[in-house]
Amino acid sequence: MADQPPLDVPTETYADHIILRPPNRLKARVAQRVDPDERLADPVRRAEHALTLLENEFDQWMDSEINALEDARRRASITHSTGDFEELYRAAHDIRGQAATLGFPLAGEVADGLCTMIERLAEASPQSLVDRHVEAVRAMVREDVRDRDHPLGVALVRRLAELRRQTIPGLSNDA
Amino acid sequence: MIRVDFTKLRILVVDDNAHMRRIVRTLLHGFGAREVYEAEDGAAGLELFTSHLPDILIVDWSMPIFDGIELVQMIRRPESGVNPYVPIIMLTGHSEKSRVLRARDAGVTEFLCKPISAKALHQRVLNCVLHPRAFVRTKDYFGPDRRRSGAAAYSGPERRVNETVLIDSGVDRIRETVNQ
């Protein structure tokens, strides 16, 4: 059962701020002292193992994320509206956050580049360059290009970065 | 040696992406957590926070209706009848320094960049349970003390002249953990 919020919190009052020290009931409830020699299962390893059991679903998840990205790209290319570009940004943002976990870190880098471009240029992002990013993400997943061991994938990432630098004023080399 | 019993923790995950919720839930279950609740936007998250009183929140930044930052600001109301001191972990694809500082200024307890790792998430939860910071209330801030190091031993005048330095070291630490 979760704790109720503490009612009486010790405070120290200063000229421009108050320090509050709520009692740490959470630690008292869930922290346990254990014998260092006792063999306990490593919770991090257990969690990593649990995640590997999901891996057979990852390709399908990645596909569904890319479908969302392509749908958003299609809508934004027709309307050029702020709302649709925000939707496109969210779809790319989802991929940059998840692609590495789902086994496609390089596609995540491409999505990160697309996010950077939309952050800087918004609706003024050139459609051709948006298309290249979206198609690169799709191609990487289709061709099973996962990480930096794949020279063609790395070359594609570099080329897209170069195109972004040519297009976005003041973009640094590592963006 | 201290161990955190995750079976006794109640955790709320607020993220609009179903895949990410599933990943986080899987990791939390792997740590041993049994009570994990999910919400797909800020409004549903606030409702579940009020009704289920979780021990810890894990919140995405970008979400429809209202986003993770707005959710944190709604929770961090000192007069709130619901627990305004609840630990909040911001889990986000935004890793820019400006975003980290904005999250900090909204009252986030821990910041965790995607891609998520079991080790980094576990460490953030442990920090929340074992090393909670005091809260600070000023005219425009209510949340965990934004100075992470040495505050207890400080005996000089009550001026925050070193704040920038301390913030920077905090950001560096966050980035180091992100790259684990």
Automatic annotation (TrEMBL), chain A:
InterPro entries: HPT_dom_sf, Sig_transdc_His_kin_Hpt_dom. One of its GO terms (biological process) is phosphorelay signal transduction system. Keywords: Phosphoprotein, Two-component regulatory system. Residues 54-148 form the HPt domain. Pfam families: Hpt (PF01627). The keyword Phosphoprotein applies. Coiled coil: none annotated. The keyword Phosphoprotein applies. One of its GO terms (molecular function) is protein kinase activity. Gene3D superfamilies: HPT domain. The modification Phosphohistidine is found at residue 93. This is Hpt domain-containing protein. The lineage of its organism: Bacteria, Pseudomonadati, Pseudomonadota, Alphaproteobacteria, Hyphomicrobiales.
From TrEMBL, chain B:
InterPro entries: CheY-like_superfamily, Sig_transdc_resp-reg_receiver, ST_Response_Regulator. Pfam families: Response_reg. CDD domains: REC_hyHK_CKI1_RcsC-like. SUPFAM superfamilies: CheY-like (SSF52172). Residues 10-129 form the Response regulatory domain. Keywords: Phosphoprotein. The modification 4-aspartylphosphate is found at residue 60. The keyword Zinc does not apply. GO terms for biological process: phosphorelay signal transduction system. SMART domains: REC (SM00448). The keyword RNA-binding does not apply. This is Response regulator. It comes from Chenggangzhangella methanolivorans. The lineage of its organism: Bacteria, Pseudomonadati, Pseudomonadota, Alphaproteobacteria, Hyphomicrobiales.
